[in-house]
C-alpha cells in the first residue's frame, strides 16, 4: 500500500514540476512579448517624431529659405542662387525621407540568440585558405581605396563648380547634382572612418560587418546608381504593381468587417482592433504610393539629370588628347568610370541574399525571413565573428571585406554536406 502511495506521490510531483515548468515558459513568453511590444511602440513613436521633424524642416527649407535666396539678374528676372538650390534639393529629399520613414514598417533589431547562423570551424578552413592569396589582398586594398576615394572626389566636385549663371547650359543641373552628392559624400566619409575606428577598437563581428558593407556603399555611391530605375520595363512594372496593390486595398475596404465582438472582449478592445486594421490599411496605401511610386520618380529624376551633367563633365575626351588632360580632368574621368561601374543593383549582394535566404528562411519566423537584407546582415555578423576567431584579426578582416558570392556558395554547399552526413 505504501509503495502504491509513493508511486502516486512521485507521479503527482512530476506533474507539478511539469505544470511549474510550463507556467515558467508561459511567463517567459509573456515577458518577451511585452518587451517586443514595448520596443515596437518606441520605434513607432520614434518614426512619427522623425517624420514630423522632417516635414517641419522641409517646409522651412522650401517655403522660408528658397524664396529668400532668389537672385536678380542684370536683365531683370530672378533665379535661384547656390544656397537656394541647396534648400530646394534637400527640402525635397527631407520631405521624401519623412514620408518614407512613416511608410516603411519597423524592422526587427536583434538577431536570434541561438547558433542559427554559426559556421563550423571545419567549413571555414575548407572554404578559406590559412593565408589570404595575393589577389585577395590586392582586392581588399582596392576596396579600401575606392571606399575612401570616391566620396572625397564627389565632395571635391563641388569646389570645381563654375559660377552660378542662369544662361549657361546645364548650370542649374550642375548645382543640383553637386548639392545632392556632396553632403551625402561627406556623410559617407565620416561613417566609413567612424565604423573603421569602431572595428579597430572593439574587433567585434558586427563592427567588421558594418565596416565592410560601408566600404561597398561608399565606393559605389553616385547619382548614376539610381539610373536602373529609369528603365521603361521596370518603371511600368513598378506602376502596375502599385496599381494592383491599391485595387486590392480598395476592395478590402469595401468588404464587410470581419471583426466580431466575443464575450470576453470589451467595446474598447473591439474599437482598438478596428483602429489597428484601419491604420494597417493606411500604412500599406502610404507605402505603395510613397515607396512604390514617389521615391522611384525622385531617384529617376536625379539619375537622368546626373547623366546629362556627368557626360558634359567629360566632354573633353572628344576634343583633347590623353596627354593633354589636366589633373582635374583625370579625376573627373576616373570618377565617371567609377560611377559607371556602380550602375544598377549590386548583383554580388543580391546573390548573397538569395543564397543565405534559401539556407535559413525555413529555420526562422516568416516575418523575419522575408527581409533578405536583414537576414544577410545577421549572417555576415556571425560569420565575421567566426572568421576573426579562426584566422585572427587581420586575416579575418581581409576575408570579410572581400567576401563574395562564390565564398557564400561554397560555405552553403559544405555546410549542407556536413548536415547530411
UniProtKB/TrEMBL annotation:
UniProt keywords, alphabetically: Membrane, Transmembrane, Transmembrane helix
Residue ranges of the TM segments: 42-65, 77-99, 172-194, 284-309
Region (Disordered): 1-33
Top-level lineage group: Eukaryota
Record's protein name: Uncharacterized protein
Amino acid at each position: 500500500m505504501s509503495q502504491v502511495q509513493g508511486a502516486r506521490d512521485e507521479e503527482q510531483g512530476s506533474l507539478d514540476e511539469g505544470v511549474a515548468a510550463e507556467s515558467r515558459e508561459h511567463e517567459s513568453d509573456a515577458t518577451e512579448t511585452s518587451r517586443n511590444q514595448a520596443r515596437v511602440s518606441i520605434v513607432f513613436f520614434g518614426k512619427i517624431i522623425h517624420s514630423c521633424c522632417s516635414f517641419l524642416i522641409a517646409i522651412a527649407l522650401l517655403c522660408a529659405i528658397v524664396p529668400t535666396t532668389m537672385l536678380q539678374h542684370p536683365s531683370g528676372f530672378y533665379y535661384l542662387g547656390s544656397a537656394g538650390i541647396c534648400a530646394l534639393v534637400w527640402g525635397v529629399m527631407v520631405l521624401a525621407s519623412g514620408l518614407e520613414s512613416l511608410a516603411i514598417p519597423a524592422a526587427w533589431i536583434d538577431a536570434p540568440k541561438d547558433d542559427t547562423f554559426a559556421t563550423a570551424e571545419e567549413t571555414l578552413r575548407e572554404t578559406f585558405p590559412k593565408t589570404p592569396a595575393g589577389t585577395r589582398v590586392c582586392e581588399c586594398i582596392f576596396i579600401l581605396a575606392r571606399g575612401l576615394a570616391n566620396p572625397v572626389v564627389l565632395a571635391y566636385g563641388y569646389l570645381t563648380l563654375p559660377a552660378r549663371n542662369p544662361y549657361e547650359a546645364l548650370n542649374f543641373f550642375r548645382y543640383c547634382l553637386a548639392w545632392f552628392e556632396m553632403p551625402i559624400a561627406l556623410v559617407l566619409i565620416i561613417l566609413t572612418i567612424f565604423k573603421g575606428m569602431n572595428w579597430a577598437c572593439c574587433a567585434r563581428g558586427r563592427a567588421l560587418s558594418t565596416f565592410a558593407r560601408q566600404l561597398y556603399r561608399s565606393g559605389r555611391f553616385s547619382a548614376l546608381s539610381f539610373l536602373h530605375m529609369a528603365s521603361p520595363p521596370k518603371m511600368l512594372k513598378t506602376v502596375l504593381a502599385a496599381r494592383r496593390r491599391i485595387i486590392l486595398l480598395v476592395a478590402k475596404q469595401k468588404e464587410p468587417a470581419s471583426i466580431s465582438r466575443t464575450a470576453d472582449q470589451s467595446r474598447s478592445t473591439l474599437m482598438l482592433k478596428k483602429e489597428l486594421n484601419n491604420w494597417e490599411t493606411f500604412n500599406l496605401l502610404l507605402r505603395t504610393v510613397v515607396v512604390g511610386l514617389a521615391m522611384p520618380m525622385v531617384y529617376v529624376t536625379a539619375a537622368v539629370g546626373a547623366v546629362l551633367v556627368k557626360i558634359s563633365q567629360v566632354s573633353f575626351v572628344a576634343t583633347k588628347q590623353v596627354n593633354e588632360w589636366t589633373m582635374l580632368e583625370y579625376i573627373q574621368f576616373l570618377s565617371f568610370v567609377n560611377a559607371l561601374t556602380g550602375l544598377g543593383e549590386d548583383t554580388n549582394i543580391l546573390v548573397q541574399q538569395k543564397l543565405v535566404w534559401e539556407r535559413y528562411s525555413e529555420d526562422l519566423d516568416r516575418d523575419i525571413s522575408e527581409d533578405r537584407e536583414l537576414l544577410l546582415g545577421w549572417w555576415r555578423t556571425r560569420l565575421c565573428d567566426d572568421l576573426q576567431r579562426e584566422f585572427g584579426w587581420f586575416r579575418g578582416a581581409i576575408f570579410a571585406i572581400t567576401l563574395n558570392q562564390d565564398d557564400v556558395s561554397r560555405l552553403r554547399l559544405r555546410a549542407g554536406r556536413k548536415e547530411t552526413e
